[in-house]
Amino acid sequence: MKLIFAERMKYVKKSFIREILKITQNPEVISFAGGLPNPSSFPLEEIETATQKILEKDGRSILQYGTTEGYLPLRTYIAERYDKRFGLKINPEEILITNGSQQALDLLSKALINEGDDVLIERPAYLGAIQSLSFYQPNLLSVTLNDDGVDLESLAKLLETHQPKFFYSVPTFQNPSGLTYSLENRKELAKLLTQHNVLLVEDDPYSELRFLGEEIPPIKCIMGDYGILLGSFSKIVSPGMRLGWVVAAPEIMDKLIIAKQAADLHTNNFSQRVVYQYLIDNDLDAHIEKIKVMYKARCTFMSEMIKQYFPPEVKVTQPEGGMFMWATLPDGISSMKLMELAAMEKVAFVPGDPFYVNEINVPTLRLNYTNSDNVLIEEGIKRLGTVIKTLMNA
Amino acid sequence: MKLIFAERMKYVKKSFIREILKITQNPEVISFAGGLPNPSSFPLEEIETATQKILEKDGRSILQYGTTEGYLPLRTYIAERYDKRFGLKINPEEILITNGSQQALDLLSKALINEGDDVLIERPAYLGAIQSLSFYQPNLLSVTLNDDGVDLESLAKLLETHQPKFFYSVPTFQNPSGLTYSLENRKELAKLLTQHNVLLVEDDPYSELRFLGEEIPPIKCIMGDYGILLGSFSKIVSPGMRLGWVVAAPEIMDKLIIAKQAADLHTNNFSQRVVYQYLIDNDLDAHIEKIKVMYKARCTFMSEMIKQYFPPEVKVTQPEGGMFMWATLPDGISSMKLMELAAMEKVAFVPGDPFYVNEINVPTLRLNYTNSDNVLIEEGIKRLGTVIKTLMNA
Question: Is B145 domain-assigned?
Answer without folding.
Answer: yes
